[in-house]
Amino acid sequence: MSKRALKTYLSKMPKKALEEQILELYTKFPAVKTYYDFAFNPKEDKLIQEAKAKISNEYFPVRRKRPRARRSVAQKFIKHFIKLGVEPNLIADVMCYNLEIAQTFSLERNVADSFYKSMLNSFNEVIQFTVNQGVFPDFKTRIVKIYKETQQQRWPLEEDFSKALDIIE
Fold first, then answer.
1. CA 100, CA 37: separation in Å to the nearest integer?
2. Per UniProt, what is one Pfam family of this protein (predicted)?
């Protein structure tokens, strides 16, 4: 169904029927419930803190012995926040936090090359996101600090990290 056809359909529905349909969607589909819960009570700070705690737990677990160090955990939160329409500053904060916690982790452990490639993808994404959302000036010092830390730790793919920063200049 196209957006236009949906608009026509909704405009012809009586208000009561429309309300019932939205309530049905709310109860049947968790995504709709999540959207409306966020739309009417956006506790963005709480969501961000929970995300950061779970991301941190990936690298420095509290209840298990081995860290999982999965980038996908942070990516799921970021994607979810974008869908919900969370403030770009808060999303960029989570993106930077993911890289910073990964750098702290790599200081203490030997990590596979795939880890560095994954972090390069995250680095590229944070740069693109902040530039596209117009919040790069707010995060420039933090992003440059992340880049310098990759150099200091002698991460592989140094050249690729450098190229990612060249995009903004």
1. 30
2. DUF6155
